Amino acid sequence: MKNMFAVKGNIIFTKEFGVYEVLENGFIVVEDKYVKGVYSKLGKEYDNIKIIDYGNSIIIPGFVDIHLHAPQFANLGLGLDKELMPWLESYTFPEEAKYSNITYAKKVYSRLIKELWKFGTTRACVFATIHKNSSKLLMDMFHESGLGAFVGKVNMDRNSPDYLVETTEASLFDTEEILKEYSSKYSLVKPIITPRFVPTCSTKLLKGLGVLAEKYKVPVQSHLSENIGEISFVKELHPEAKNYASIYNDAGLFGNTQTIMAHCVLVDDNEIDLMVKNKVFVAHCANSNSNLTSGIAPVRKFINKGIPVGLASDVSGGHSLSMMDVIVSSAQVSNLKYIESDRNDKPLNTAELFYLATKGGGKFFGKVGSFEEGYEFDALVIDDSDLPIFKALSIEERLQKFIYTGDDRNIKERYVAGDNIREPKFI
Amino acid sequence: MKNMFAVKGNIIFTKEFGVYEVLENGFIVVEDKYVKGVYSKLGKEYDNIKIIDYGNSIIIPGFVDIHLHAPQFANLGLGLDKELMPWLESYTFPEEAKYSNITYAKKVYSRLIKELWKFGTTRACVFATIHKNSSKLLMDMFHESGLGAFVGKVNMDRNSPDYLVETTEASLFDTEEILKEYSSKYSLVKPIITPRFVPTCSTKLLKGLGVLAEKYKVPVQSHLSENIGEISFVKELHPEAKNYASIYNDAGLFGNTQTIMAHCVLVDDNEIDLMVKNKVFVAHCANSNSNLTSGIAPVRKFINKGIPVGLASDVSGGHSLSMMDVIVSSAQVSNLKYIESDRNDKPLNTAELFYLATKGGGKFFGKVGSFEEGYEFDALVIDDSDLPIFKALSIEERLQKFIYTGDDRNIKERYVAGDNIREPKFI
Ligand SMILES: [Zn+2]
Ligand SMILES: [Zn+2]
Fold it and tell me: What are the backbone angles phi and psi of residue B356, rounded to the nearest 5°?
């Protein structure tokens, strides 16, 4: 019986949006890296497998963060007093320029990956910078850590500062080099096409990236309709375009291969229809959308239309890597959106947001974010014994209490694709 | 030189709203429980005093939380899927009923006070329950801990469940007993008149409480215009009233003695004028207002009008006792309010919110929340050396980074009124 084991504990996950599956003192059997099944008692066929008993702890799928900027981790919690466009110029671009220096990149990326590990993020979709070498480094380091990630070298060939810009040709050339080298290099870490956003990418660059996405069958991530200032700039740059989304779409970067668009705060109905048609993922960045005064994305509307949605920290527009924090913030803004929108779009409850933070975003990685059979076994073991609890709580309530009042100290173990992942120690 | 000492470190506080005073490697001289002065070098007159050197740490005023419900701490992070009125009935009232049991009260209150200590809250305005004995217990325990607090036995004589209601007479009698016994008992812990809110207090009860407030010269705390459902209920109960605030005002409970009103999300212009005239404090409860789908209070407007404002966790409508969390949440909703309000009310920046979380709320306690001469020395020593910092930061930036990304682990020492307060150990 090769590579088979079981973990035992209070299992909770969401197969369907907003519906908890709960198994008190249950077992998850893992074969190779996949979930074989979830059982209240182990059948005879599993008599000889190793059982790891986590006692009264809670076992949940690992958190999936589908949008964050690795270099901006150095700015975490700083400079949140501006809106998107001046924020990029004052804080973000100067920081990102530093990643031409591989030593500096290694210093920040080491700490970032440790913190992701700490907060129980087992999979992430990550923007690096325009720099080829530190982008490769980041992929190597994610691989070394054992966490799963899509990592994108960023593309920017216009409206960018002199110290952080590429030629169209170099941008495409470096991107293709990474695709060739990394597409099959690692099983849990993959490259992703990453035009920063329309303002910094010429049409020629976008079309070139669309060709690469198709040629190498790789996914795409970018930003869409985050902030008023950004949107008017896009309109100015592309008076001919039907809307912001269509510019990506015309370049083959809007669902031709699997695509994530971050924010989508201010998308119009035509853009939403295109997202539905092309199955474009939304990365919902509640903290960032509040911090940078962008607004509240219409997440309930996206979900009702069938658009796939995941949650995201959007560091460092977001100030916290903790997906528990991101869930709470997403709940809060969905409540505020509900009031704002004449009480049409029902607020998102904890079970719904938990789904988005696990299986919702996990879908972008394949079968990830659930304990259904055939899913990669990504899991967190939560010990809530030191939280202030004064009465018997259901597993659902314990999960909610952990999300709202716990922190990284309550996360005792992390599994990714069947492996127990220890704190990364980079040399 | 009796009872004089100095602390040394990177000092930052706000004398004026939104304006940091910063002294790198400075000294705060403390005489008895008061700040004597803040100096970059110590004068000869202080040659022989004890100096406690906190090295590169940051020294800030203690946090002041001007609205929270002690018994609801047991529900922290639970049941946030309802709006105010059903939330009270489903979760809050059943929990509060348990505090007729003094043993249970002691268990929860011990942990609550430890957690307040942990998060660096040095002063708090607290609702207990209707129960006289556990309200007294809470005052005794706050005194024992060394933290400062106004603690109110709650009054409720109508529209309350059978298991959590008083007669008007008993409510007034028990309140007066506490006022007699506790008004001068402790220096840092004081009683406060605490009608829950208009829906649960008859006019006779309110007027009786107004008489007691005046007779014993004690302050008042209650709730005002938090949620749509609550406000329509108040209108139904008092068709004769000019507005919600006037009901408190007519009973002598709206600034006749120093008064805090929590929430004030939906106050109208007449109510705002009355708050200005009567110098009524607003307890701004950003987390709670989002969690219970109440809305966003117009804090910038209050401040522009000269209304005193402090920040509050409002546990357990709020899910976190951390005033760092409350500052972040307050920043986020003020950004969202700005967008909502056609960009009139400028968002609150970190320095402004830091002022509200220290000196703003501290004013309710007298000279508290600043390091100006004559202020009671409440302070936190912040060690940010393990936060991910990759470049030289100013003290202001380090404070911001602590607020946005740090937690209780970064708080190394807590002072209240000149005393270094150790973790409370209740027997
Ligand atoms: Zn982003
Ligand atoms: Zn309250």
Answer: -60, -35
What secondary structure does DSSP assign to A168-213, as a single string? HHHHHHHHHHHHHHHTTT-SSEEE-BEE--GGGS-HHHHHHHHHHH
Closest ligand, as measured to the CA of A88: 1
Separation in Å, CA of A146 to nearest CA in chain B: 21
CA distance A230 to A239: 14
Put simply, the answer to whether A293 touches B347 (Cβ < 8 Å) is yes
Instruction: Measure A19 CA to ligand 2 centroid, in angstroms.
Output: 31
Q: Is the predicted pLDDT of residue A1 greater than 80, yes or no?
A: no
CA of residue A241 to ligand 2 center, whole Å: 50
Contact check, Cβ <8 Å, A76/B388? yes
Residue A17 has pLDDT above 60, yes or no: yes
Answer for the pair B34, B375: CB distance below 8 angstroms, yes or no: yes
Query: Which residue of B96, B324, B332, B426 to mutate against A (max A Cβ within 10 Å)?
Result: B332
The reply to whether residue A295 touches residue B339, judged by beta carbons under 8 angstroms, is: yes
Which residue of chain B is at minimal alpha-carbon distance from A290? B332
CA distance to A125, A422, B12, B55, per residue, from A180 (Å):
19, 30, 52, 51
Give residue A68's pLDDT band: very low, low, confident or very high (50, 70, 90): very high
* Residue recorded with tokens 């207002």: B289
pLDDT in tens, chain B (427 residues): 458 999 999 999 999 999 999 999 999 999 999 999 999 999 999 999 999 999 999 999 999 999 999 999 999 999 888 889 989 999 999 999 999 999 999 999 999 999 999 999 999 999 999 999 999 999 999 999 999 999 999 999 999 999 999 999 999 999 999 999 999 999 999 999 999 999 999 999 999 999 999 999 999 999 999 999 999 999 999 999 999 999 999 999 999 999 999 999 999 999 999 999 999 999 999 999 999 999 999 999 999 999 999 999 999 999 999 999 999 999 999 999 999 888 888 999 999 999 999 999 999 999 999 999 999 999 999 999 999 999 999 999 999 999 999 999 999 999 999 999 999 998 7
By C-alpha distance, which of A261, A259, A278 is closest to A270?
A278
Instruction: Give the span between the Cα atoms of A411 and B295, in whole angstroms.
Output: 33
3-state secondary structure of B370: coil
Q: Count of A–B CB contacts within 8 Å? A: 116
What is the mean pLDDT of the segment spanning A164-180? 98
pLDDT tier at A82, thresholds 50, 70, 90: confident
**Ligand 1 centre from A65 Cα, in Å?**
12
Q: In Å, how far is A409's CA from the nearest CA of chain B?
A: 11
Q: In B, which residues are within 8 Å of A349 by CB distance?
A: 81
Contacts of A391 in chain B (CB under 8 A): 74
Q: Cβ(B87)–Cβ(B383) under 8 Å?
A: no
Strand residue runs (E) in B114-162? 121-127, 148-152, 154-155
Query: How remote is the CA of residue B313 from the centroid of ligand 1, in Å?
Result: 30
Among A108, A295, A319, beta carbon nearest to B404:
A319
- Candidates B118, B290, B342: best to mutate against A (most CBs of A within 10 A) is B290
Assigned token pair, B297: 């209070």
Residues of B in contact with A112 (CB under 8 A): 388
- A130 CB-near residues (< 8 Å, 6+ apart): A96, A153, A154, A155, A156, A164, A165, A166, A171
- Contact at CB, B287 and A332, closer than 8 angstroms: yes
Is A397 in Cβ contact with B76 (below 8 Å)? no
Q: Tell me the two tokens of residue B304.
A: 């522009």
DSSP string covering A387-408: S---S---HHHHHHHHHHH--G
> How far apart, in whole angstroms, are the C-alpha atoms of residue A49 and residue A275?
45
Pairing of strands B309-311, B379-382: unpaired
